[in-house]
Amino acid sequence: MSSDPSPQEREAFSDWLLARWKEKEMLLEGYAQNGRFPADEGHHSEGGPVVGTTKGAGFIEAEVKLTHWFEILQIFSVLGAVAAVGVTFGIPEQWWNTFGSSAYINISGA
Fold this sequence. Notes:
The chain is mainly α. It has 3 helices and no strands. The longest helix has 28 residues.
């Protein structure tokens, strides 16, 4: 049994791929003009279209507001925890010894 696609399958795939390419270009052009992507068409997880009022809303927009000022610090808490663990086990020093000496390029020619 051959695993090569038939000419009809190749043509169908080519048509499908071209349609996706055109769809992508249309979305990017719309983003360039409007500064946002359109909302979805309202599809079920099984792929069928949604019937009724639950279809896409035109554009996807969301307002993001902080509840408390310290939420800004929470963003960096994970990075700080990783850095603390790294310092505890001497990882930055190991990296510096491995990569630090080769990180400088001698541009003076000496």
